[in-house]
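Message: I would value a second opinion on how I read folds in token form. Give me a protein, with the fold worked out from its sequence. Write it directly below this note and I will take it from there.
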Amino acid sequence: MQTAQTHSHRRAEEELADKTLLQEVLQLANAPLIGVAPGMSPDIKNHFESRLAELGWANDPTAPAAITLGSNIANFGRVTEELHELFFHIVSVPVLIISFE
């Protein structure tokens, strides 16, 4: 599994960089021993939960990964589009969305 795309809402990348956390967060999805394949959802979830618990960020796979995993998972394009177009003025805190494949 590796990082595919990121979307920075309300200066999330800049905020993380200011706190010297950006590189750590961007590396979260880089887990060569975990693949995106049917039945891997529990392993992926456990990986992100353990790494993100200390940072407080959420994960979001790409559309192909969501389809491959076969569970009710939001895809990167939909989440980022809705965040930018529908909720830009509502969500006023920094949010960094990381997709993986």
